[in-house]
Write a structure and sequence with these properties.
Number of domains: 2
CATH architecture of the largest domain: 4-Layer Sandwich
Oligomer: single chain
CATH class of the largest domain: Alpha Beta
CATH superfamily of the largest domain: Ribonuclease Z/Hydroxyacylglutathione hydrolase-like
Order of helices and strands: EEEEHEHEEEEEEHHHHEE
Helix content: 25-40%
Strand content: 15-25%
CATH topology of the largest domain: Metallo-beta-lactamase, Chain A
Number of strands: 13
Shape: elongated
Mean pLDDT: 94
Length: 310
Amino acid sequence: MRAADLGVRMPALPVDRSFSPDYGVAMEVAPGVRRVLARNPNPFTFHGTGTYIVGRGTVAVIDPGPALDEHVAAILAATRGETISHILVTHTHNDHAPAAAPLKAATGALVMGCGPHGSGRVADGIEVEEGGDRSYAPDEELADGARVRVGDVSFEAVFTPGHTSNHVCFAAPEVHAFFPGDHVMGWSTTVIAPPDGDMADYLRSLEKLLALPEMPFYPTHGNPIARPHEFVRALIAHRHAREAQIEACLARGLVTIGDMVPVIYSEVDVRLHPAASRSVLAHLQHMVATGRVACEGIAGAASRYRRASG
C-alpha cells in the first residue's frame, strides 16, 4: 500500500529548494540582514545552518549555529570593525546553539532568547536529552513579547513552542524581517519529535504567526519566504491532511506507527522514516488528546491505536 491508496489529498506546499550554498561568506539577503552559512549539511539542516547578522555597526547574531571553528571565524570575519552586542538563539538544537559559547568568549556579547534545552517540559516532569545543547546557558531568557534593542534595530521575542518546547522567533520591524528559526522553513516541513516536540503546541504557534504583521521570513535553513502567511496556512492544511491520512490508516487496520510510516511516507527517502515516525507519534498524541483516536495507556511509539469511535 502507498500513500495515494489512502484517498487523502495532501495539499501542495510551496517549498523552495533552489538554494546555492556559499559557505563562510556573509551574503546580504535584505537591507541590514546578512547570512553566513555553516558547513553542516545533512537531511535535517538542508545545506546547513544560516546564521544571521542583523544591523550595522552594533549588530545582533541570530542562531550562531554549530560549534565549528571555521563557522565562528566566518562570523567574526564578517563583523570585523563592528560590535556583536547580542547573540539571539531560537532554540537549543545542536545545529543552532553551540556556537553561542565561543562567539560570546570572543566578543563579550550577551546571549539571549530561548531558555535551556527542554525547559518548556520542566513543569511536566519530562527530562529532554536528545539532540540538544545541554551546556547552553543564556544571560537572559526572553519571555513572549520581550523586546531587545541592538543598535538601530529592535527585536521582539515571539514564543513558539512546538518544534521544541523552548522555541522562540524574533521579529525585527526596522529591517522588515522575521526570523522563525526552525518553526517555519521554506525548504521542508518541520520535524516535531516528542517528548520535547508537541503537535498541539506547534499548530497553536503557527496560528499565532497569522495574527502578527506580515514580514518576510528568514529561516535558519533555506531561502527567505516572501509570502509567509500563505506558507503558514499551507503548513496548517498539510498537518490537518496528515492527520486525515492517519485516520485512513486506522480505518484500514494499520494500527501501529511501524505500520503507518511506510505507507504515509512511501514517497520519502527511507532514511528519513525514523524522523517521520516521531512526527506521526506527535500527531497521534494530539489526536488522542483531542478525542479522535484512542489507545491503551499513554500514547507512545509502541502503542496500538484505534479510531475513538471503534
